[in-house]
């Protein structure tokens, strides 16, 4: 069964850092683009970042550029999101998702991990 | 950025009746290759989003055929031919033509 399992969420102070992890199983991780999508409490979905199969291309929403870094390890079947200089507006459930190209759609989602930015 | 606008934002439906959700984009989502880069997702209560439709009209694997997607350019529709209780949740359209990927505000479907 194809599965994505996020971890690493929690309470972090404004200006602090946090690293989210996503463990993939049940599919050949190295063959797929991967993404992070977030959802603020009671709000809609917001795409955060994408990374190419080999990690050579990365894309970010403007609001996190320069603060967040997406990365992956195809040997460990793992995806990460390094969050720095976090703000209250970064409070959200963060989902790891598989991004299918061609077609450009998210076809597998994790259960999410909650990040709360508060003092 | 491409702005996605859904309507209605709330949709109460009687089981067995049809339902329709509209999604409009601020720019055409039709690529020169003929594909419309418009997807539909359903987020059931307490769950992660799940893919329903991609490329405007292609049903994802395992999605019941009562769900259909149509439209082209800037105007798209998700239709449910006969709503069932398990269809409750929030429906999102999403454009993937250009970065940043953007979602609609969501349409909450509930049962009357």
Explain what you see.
The complex is a heterodimer of chains A (119) and B (112). With 119 residues, chain A is an all-beta fold. Chain A contains no helices and eleven strands. The mean pLDDT of chain A is 98. Chain B is an all-beta fold and 112 residues long. Chain B has strands spanning 4-7, 10-13, 19-25, 38-43, 49-54, 58-59, 67-72, 75-80, 89-95, 102-103, 107-111. In chain B, strands 2, 4, 5, 6, 9, 10 and 11 form a seven-stranded mixed sheet that branches. In chain B, a hairpin with a 3-residue loop joins β5 and β6. Chain B is globular, with a radius of gyration of 13 Å. The termini of chain B are far apart.
List its salient traits.
heterodimer; A: 119 residues; mainly beta; seven-stranded mixed β-sheet; four-stranded antiparallel β-sheet; 11 strands; B: seven-stranded mixed β-sheet; 0% helix
Number of helices of chain A: 0
Radius of gyration of chain B: 13 Å
What's the rounded overall pLDDT mean of chain B?
98
What is the radius of gyration of chain A computed over CA atoms, rounded to a whole number of angstroms? 13 Å
Ends apart, CA distance between termini of chain A: 39 Å
Cα(first) to Cα(last) distance of chain B is 36 Å
Model regions low in confidence, pLDDT < 50 over at least 5 residues of chain B: none
Strand content of chain B: over 45%
Gross morphology of chain A: globular
Chain-wise SSE layout:
The complex is a heterodimer of chains A (119) and B (112).
Chain A lengths: L2 E5 L2 E3 L5 E8 L7 E7 L5 E7 L6 E3 L7 E6 L4 E6 L8 E9 L4 E5 L3 E5 L2
Parallel strand pairs in A: 2-11
Antiparallel strand pairs in A: 1-3, 3-8, 4-5, 4-9, 5-6, 7-8, 9-10, 9-11
Chain B lengths: L3 E4 L2 E4 L5 E7 L12 E6 L5 E6 L3 E2 L7 E6 L2 E6 L8 E7 L6 E2 L3 E5 L1
Parallel strand pairs in B: 2-11
Antiparallel strand pairs in B: 1-3, 3-8, 4-5, 4-9, 5-6, 7-8, 9-10, 9-11
In short:
With 119 residues, chain A is an all-beta fold. Chain A has strands spanning 3-7, 10-12, 18-25, 33-39, 45-51, 58-60, 68-73, 78-83, 92-100, 105-109, 113-117. In chain A, strands 2, 4, 5, 6, 9, 10 and 11 form a seven-stranded mixed beta sheet that branches.
């Amino acid at each position: 069964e194809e599965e994505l399992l996020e971890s690493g969420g929690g309470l972090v102070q404004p200006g602090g850092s946090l690293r989210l992890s996503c463990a993939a199983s049940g599919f050949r991780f190295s063959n797929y683009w991967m993404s992070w999508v977030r959802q603020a409490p009671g709000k809609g979905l917001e795409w955060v970042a994408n990374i190419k199969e080999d990690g050579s291309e990365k894309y970010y929403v403007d609001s996190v550029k320069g603060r967040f870094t997406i990365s992956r390890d195809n040997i460990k079947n793992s995806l990460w999101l390094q969050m720095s200089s976090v703000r209250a507006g970064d409070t959200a459930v963060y989902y790891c998702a598989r991004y299918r190209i061609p077609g450009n759609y998210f076809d597998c989602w994790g259960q999410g991990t909650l990040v709360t930015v508060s003092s | 950025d491409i702005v996605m606008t859904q309507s209605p934002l709330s949709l109460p439906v009687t089981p067995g009746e049809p339902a329709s959700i509209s999604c409009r984009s601020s720019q055409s989502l039709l690529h020169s290759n003929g594909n419309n880069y418009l997807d539909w997702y359903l987020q059931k209560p307490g769950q992660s989003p799940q893919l329903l439709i991609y490329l405007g009209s292609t049903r994802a694997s395992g999605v019941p055929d009562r769900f259909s997607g149509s439209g082209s350019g800037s105007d798209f529709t998700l239709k449910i031919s006969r709503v069932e209780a398990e269809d409750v949740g929030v429906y999102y359209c999403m454009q993937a033509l250009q970065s940043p990927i953007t979602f609609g505000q969501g349409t909450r479907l509930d049962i009357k």
